[in-house]
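Here we describe the complex-level prediction in full. Unlike the single-chain runs in Section 2.1, the two entities below were treated as one system.
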Amino acid sequence: MLSDMASFRVITPRREQAIADVILWTVMAFTLSMLLFIIVFVVQRGLPGLTWEYLTQAPADGGRAGGVFPMLIGTLIVTALGVVIATPLGLGTAIYLTEYTREGRLTRLIRFGAECLAGVPSIIFGLFGFVLFVIALGFGWSILAGGLTLAFMILPTIIRTSEEAIRSVPTAYREVALSLGASKWQSVVRVVLPSALPGILTGIILGVGRSISETAAVIFTAGSSLSHRAPTSLFDGVRTLSVHFYQLAREGISDQKAYTTATVLVLAILIINVTAYVIMNRLMRRYR
Amino acid sequence: MRPATLDALVERGLLILALSSIGILLLITVFIFREGGPLLFRVGIGNFLGTSWQPAEGQFGIATMVAGSAAVTVGALLLGVPLGLACAIVLAEMVSIRTRTILKPAIEVLAGIPSVVYGFIGIVVLIPWIRQNLGGAGASVLAGSIILGIMVLPTVIGISIDALQAVPKSYREGSIALGATRWQTIRRVVLPAARSGIVAAVILGMGRAVGETMAVIMVAGNSVQIPHSPLDSVRTLTANIALEMGYAAGDHRSALFATGVVLFVIIMALNATANLARGWQRRRTVIRPPISQATSADLGKTTRTIRDPEAC
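The structure predicted for the assembly as a whole is:
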């Protein structure tokens, strides 16, 4: 106490406030500039190589030349499969948690499960997908194995955002539907879900973002072999864009191609995040 | 079908969907333990926790990898926690809502950037810089710590902001009314009240750092050794799995799954601790004033009760 008071005499509260402001704002500016640096550094070097041919041609010479067409298609299909599987599971969970049950031991258990799942590292998902889908179920390194693994990984994101979106729909909406004679399920499907749709979409879009940027979980499930043609079956192995980028960067195959692939990834993530955010913001503003 | 019958069916169906995440968690646990567990008994805990990793000779000691993970994680937290906490304080306490709605998503973009891109930045920027200015090979504990330090920022910032915003407004009003400056209020009232939530943010950041794989493989060097300086190359638990999984077979592969078991147990313990810490703050900062003085936080709770479908 005494030493506290002594130091106050040297540094007045007002000066302390000013010092704290400067330090905190400097740190904030530093963090934001780091983000900006990463994006600018990659995009500046990669953008010149980002041509229509790059996106539509097959790779040549182990990735040193040509484009990323098969990886692009592979990424899109694996991601789409993941989202198609995870959305019903996540949305169903969110509807159950918000509309069909009281807070209690069961909801705590379900939330605990989702939270734990969100914390599981992607390499563990990769190992799990490898033993269950690739080996035990015999899918091999395939779109199917990769998509299922990604679905499990993005499930917590979809649960959380859908739950938030459904909760933001005003109670009055449900009351009106019920008072008009709708059953609970009718009120959910015709009133609550349409109103919460933007928020649910946000969750799905964020899931797409996570799937696109994921490497460790897909490299052991969807495979990593370089293919020159787009996949034609769910049992085809694919190399996703981020896996392709990892190989280019780690093995120093081609810096120019690595920058360009990184640019595709970073720009995709930027667009995805901004879209998700704009949609969510609009929903939140509507019901505030 | 009568609506009431349909409703009952729907409820049961939704319950099954809702149990999916807990089911998946159990499935993961079972499969990882089934693949990795038996080896632990076969070669013995002593071998497994030793420092010699020579899978070809039946030596499966992961102690060096545990040390490697610990080293980069501690380094990441030394960098990420002060930066993250400062950003969280600015965003939660010092800016208008409008500024926050612009800055917070910007930081969330950091979380979305693929970890391989972070690793790449490490390879082309950080590693050459360390090699030229500090010596050594460049790929090191230090490089891993810096990259992971940036990668844990969104986790630390996000959870800390939640913790700070959960502190009731009346705490700040009381402090300001007593003549404290805004900074004094933050340091002596808000931060102590949000303490366990911030602890949760640090623990979850730790989980993120321990579990990260691709970025660490690209920058930490991957030598199987106990690090003695920040410039030493190390291999983490996650890197060990990802590097050798491609060609491992038999006991070697089981040993990698056993490494996964260790990783899984560490992460689950961290998650559970963070969960406890967050629950603790929630309980502690809920104040129960007379009804006439109900705060906005309590009003929020009331509306939620009304929103409860059973009450409709």
